[in-house]
């Protein structure tokens, strides 16, 4: 069918949260101590899982049964269904600002990762990495320019950034998770090789003389300044509602053609009429609760408007099989959000610990900048180039590990980019559809405060056209670059 699996949703939620912030986790662990870092990460992960459940319930109550709502299942649509159009547009603006900032950061990090790899492969023609070679490859060095890296990246990622559904990115998200996990293994290997010799010269293992487990006295500012690394490392709420639609909504709400025979459709409609009556009763019940001042109930009432209005309403087409599949999808989504929170905690904490063990108190804010040559104090974050953010690369074993880790992180960032890109693209497409209707002075679809159809072009189809998705994908990547 048109539903994604629990493991696919887990991979997407994991990659939406575990971006480039994993590179700063060893620095946060060094500043906070291992114990406090693990406790803070686990606490934020628990809060993340709880708030994701709230978003899932809100999406279910606001969208289930309405063709227009299911067709534009976005985070801001859920906000609008409960709080009205004004707050929906405020939420849409927040989605755009936050996503554009994240996408721009991803492109900057991608250039920082790919540039030294290309320069090393080309022979470092201009000596920017401290190892200029007279036999450099000028043609290859051309691709080390930041604008070229960004352009090539945008072209290669275009098929993924134009994906019709977020669930179709599950396999690429799984590969991204594997890439960052291997980076953690590389750090663990370095930590293991350094362990027999102790911490590098002049580098304590922990932030204080108490060792790596607890922060020392007077380290309060260091602890507070690194807390945002943890707080912002678990943000995947924008991706939840599209995944909810893919896992819970019926196939026809995903834009697919209903291929059931006519007799099956008639039986489904007859069998679903009871569901429609039950939904109507639920709406009446919520209306009475809303009259007593329950704001949540009033929001649910407006979100349920249109369930059984007209033959196209999904409340009249849901078969028992649809209901069972939707319930299974809801259970799978619960597994996905809990699994993503647990895996994020494991990934972040393990990376922080092995990075701290490998580089001690001299670990850089970006752990990959510490990997040039761990035993050489002349190499590391203090001696990188201020102009391009590239740390000097020394010949030898550690430089090879450095390049391998950078390449793996580049793969991770490249495959995480479309997952972050998806909600921003959908918001822009729906805003464009709304602006087009307003310009043409066409009536806005009815629905009151609970109308979640800012993107009328998507209604009834469940997806925007390929041409529109491609255009917005190119524009978004270009703006961020």
Automatic annotation (TrEMBL):
Cellular component per GO, a single term: membrane
Record's bilayer topology term: Multi-pass membrane protein
Origin: domain of life: Eukaryota
Stretch list, region Disordered: 255-291
Membrane-crossing residue ranges in chain numbering: 6-27, 34-58, 64-83, 95-118, 138-162, 174-195
Organism expressing this protein natively: Cafeteria roenbergensis (Marine flagellate)
Entry keywords, A to Z: Membrane, Transmembrane, Transmembrane helix
Name of the molecule in the record: Amino acid transporter transmembrane domain-containing protein
Chief place where the protein resides: membrane
Range of residues in the leader sequence: none
Gene Ontology molecular functions: L-amino acid transmembrane transporter activity
Compartmental location: Membrane
Amino acid transporter transmembrane domain sequence ranges: 3-252
């Amino acid at each position: 069918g048109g539903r994604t699996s629990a493991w696919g949703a887990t991979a997407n939620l994991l990659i939406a949260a575990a971006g480039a912030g994993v590179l700063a986790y060893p620095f946060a662990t060094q500043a906070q101590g291992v114990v406090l870092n693990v406790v803070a990460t686990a606490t934020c992960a628990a809060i993340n899982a709880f708030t994701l459940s709230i978003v899932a319930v809100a999406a279910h109550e606001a969208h289930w049964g309405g063709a227009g709502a299911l067709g534009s299942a976005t985070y801001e649509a859920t906000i609008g269904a409960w709080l009205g159009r004004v707050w929906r547009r405020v939420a849409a603006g927040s989605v755009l600002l936050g996503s554009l900032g994240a996408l721009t950061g991803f492109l900057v990090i991608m250039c920082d990762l790919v540039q030294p790899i290309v320069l090393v492969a080309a022979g470092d023609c201009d000596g920017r990495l401290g190892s200029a070679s007279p036999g450099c490859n000028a043609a290859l060095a051309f691709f080390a320019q930041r604008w070229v890296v960004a352009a090539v990246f945008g072209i290669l990622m275009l098929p993924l950034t134009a994906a019709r559904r977020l669930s179709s990115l599950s396999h690429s998200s799984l590969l991204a998770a594997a890439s960052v996990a291997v980076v953690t293994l590389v750090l663990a290997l370095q930590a293991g090789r350094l362990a027999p010799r102790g911490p590098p010269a002049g580098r304590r293992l922990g932030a204080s003389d108490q060792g790596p487990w607890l922060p020392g006295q007077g380290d309060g500012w260091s602890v507070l300044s690194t807390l945002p690394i943890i707080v912002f490392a678990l943000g995947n709420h924008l991706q939840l509602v599209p995944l909810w639609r893919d896992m819970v909504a019926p196939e026809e709400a995903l834009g697919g053609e209903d291929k059931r025979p006519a007799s099956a459709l008639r039986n489904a409609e007859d069998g679903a009429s009871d569901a429609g009556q039950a939904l109507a009763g639920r709406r009446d019940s919520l209306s009475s609760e809303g009259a007593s001042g329950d704001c949540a109930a009033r929001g649910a009432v407006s979100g349920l408007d249109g369930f059984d209005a007209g033959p196209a309403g999904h409340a009249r087409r849901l078969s028992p099989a649809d209901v069972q599949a939707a319930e299974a999808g809801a259970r799978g989504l619960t597994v996905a959000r809990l699994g993503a929170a647990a895996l994020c905690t494991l990934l972040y904490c393990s990376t922080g610990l092995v990075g701290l063990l490998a580089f001690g108190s001299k670990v850089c804010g970006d752990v990959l900048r510490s990997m040039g040559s761990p035993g050489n104090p002349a190499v590391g974050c203090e001696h990188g180039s201020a102009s391009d953010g590239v740390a000097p690369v020394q010949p030898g074993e550690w430089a090879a590990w450095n390049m391998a880790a950078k390449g793996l992180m580049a793969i991770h960032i490249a495959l995480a980019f479309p997952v972050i890109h998806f909600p921003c693209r959908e918001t822009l497409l729906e805003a464009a559809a709304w602006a087009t209707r307003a310009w043409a002075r066409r009536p806005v679809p009815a629905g009151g405060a609970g109308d979640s159809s800012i993107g009328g072009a998507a209604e009834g189809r469940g997806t925007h056209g390929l041409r529109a998705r491609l255009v917005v994908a190119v524009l978004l990547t270009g703006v961020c670059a």
